[in-house]
Amino acid sequence: MLLPFYQQELLEAGCDEAGRGCLAGPVFAAAVILPPDFHHPLLNDSKQLAEKERNKLRKEIEEMAIAFAVAAVDHQEIDKINILNASFLAMHRALDQLKQQPDFIIIDGNRFKPYQNTKHQCIVKGDGKYFSIAAASILAKTYRDEYMENLHQQFPHYDWKQNKGYPTVKHREAVFSYGLSPYHRKTFRITNPQLSIFNSLPYESTTTHQ
Fold this sequence. Notes:
By secondary structure, the protein is an alpha/beta fold. It contains 7 helices and 5 strands. Helix 2 crosses helix 3.
């Protein structure tokens, strides 16, 4: 059972990102402020839910939230400032767009660049602990998935409709066959899919950033 808030004295927003481990496309982030009485029996970490469930929850979150916003940092910016800083920037952009500013922020993960003078708390695996972070993870992932599915129409051989830019074997094979698209992150290392040692590694282990 997820918890409604980390603290109850200040207006709280949850933040999360999607797409850090991808080879192509932007990193997306969302910020969500939920009402005091919010509860949802199905809301959880986006990675624990099926695509159909995530899309249904996205509509419900947007209808019930006090405020929500989604923002992105594109592949070119990622190459310039690195993926960690790009993730922080995407979260800051989402927070900038909230129609009501929070007094406290909870973030999924263990690192965050302070936002203005707002108090914050990093929470490891927070998307599986707090409703607002879980809601942010749903929005960030569904908006990013939609973006990559649209890009797939221009570059179908990379299979972005299925892999959303993550370094699956099929995606890496396509890069070795067709080269990089205009949307690939040039600072990320793309391993040869024929090297079996890399095929058993998690996605994030196949990428590096400076």
